[in-house]
Design a protein that fits this description.
Strand content of chain B: over 45%
Oligomer: heterodimer
Shape of chain B: globular
Largest interface: A-B, 33 and 27 residues
Order of helices and strands of chain A: EEEEEEEEEEE
Distance between the termini of chain B: 37 Å
Number of helices of chain A: 0
Helix content of chain B: under 10%
Mean pLDDT of chain B: 92
Structural class of chain A: mainly beta
Helix content of chain A: under 10%
Low-confidence stretches of chain B: none
Structural class of chain B: mainly beta
Number of helices of chain B: 0
Mean pLDDT of chain A: 93
Number of strands of chain A: 11
Shape of chain A: globular
Largest sheet of chain B: 6 strands, mixed
Largest sheet of chain A: 7 strands, mixed
Low-confidence stretches of chain A: none
Radius of gyration of chain B: 13 Å
Strand content of chain A: over 45%
């Protein structure tokens, strides 16, 4: 089945720790995205990548890092510099120009700081 | 930056009624998309309407776009309890290579 997979579904982080969220797609999409969702805030763009080995900051990139070494994979690291990381994280993928095509979303990772 | 803003924030109706949600945006767009999100899940694409289109249908969904008013509406006809979800509009983001989402409308359909 083609799709986009995020793991884990739930993640707990201690203060000061870095954690990495996984996102894998087998849709042969060029573009991948990370969004953060807080209650009542909608989706905010963290990072996006249009092609392997290239990525761009979104609206709220501070405290996050990404890599795009393979077309299928776009992991997100939440670093200790992110002061309020508790949120629901969504990964998406699409064709190169997402304005002309639909984006496919994973089922999300809920990150909680303990 | 959030381009689209949905209205109302929340909507509660009975099964069989129609539900209308609105989206307003600030700058010119190429296309506008609507997505649905069930609680605690990822978003699912519903429909894409291009800037040169005024209306589009998909099953029980009807989307309109008024570029002069910078607004769009999503109508769900004959709603069902299974339509309970949040609905988001999305517009072109930076360099047309990203989507910018509004805060969404939370729809509750009661049996």
């Amino acid at each position: 089945d083609g799709g986009i997979t995020q793991s884990p579904k739930y993640l707990f982080r201690k203060e000061g720790q870095n954690v990495t969220l996984s996102c894998e797609q087998n849709l042969n999409h060029d573009a991948m995205y990370w969004y953060r969702q807080d209650p009542g805030q909608g989706l905010r763009l963290i990072y996006y990548s249009q092609i392997v080995n290239d990525f761009q900051k979104g609206d709220i990139a501070e405290g996050y890092s990404v890599s795009r070494e393979k077309k299928e994979s776009f992991p997100l690291t939440v670093t200790s510099a992110q002061k309020n990381p508790t949120a629901f994280y969504l990964c998406a993928s699409s064709g190169r120009l997402v304005m002309n095509t639909e984006a496919f979303f994973g089922q999300g990772t809920r990150l909680t700081v303990v | 930056s959030q381009q689209g803003e949905e209205d109302p924030q929340a909507l509660s109706i009975q099964e069989g009624e129609n539900a209308t949600m609105n989206c307003s945006y600030k700058t010119s767009i190429n296309n506008l998309q609507w997505y649905r999100q069930n609680s605690g899940r990822g978003l699912v694409h519903l429909i894409l309407i291009r800037s040169n289109e005024r209306e589009k249908h998909s099953g029980r969904l009807r989307v309109t776009l008024d570029t002069s008013k910078k607004s769009s509406s999503l109508l769900i006809t004959a709603s069902r309890a299974a339509d309970t979800a949040s609905y988001f509009c999305a517009t072109d983001g930076s360099g047309y290579s990203t989507l910018t989402f509004g805060k969404g409308t939370m729809l509750l359909v009661s049996p």
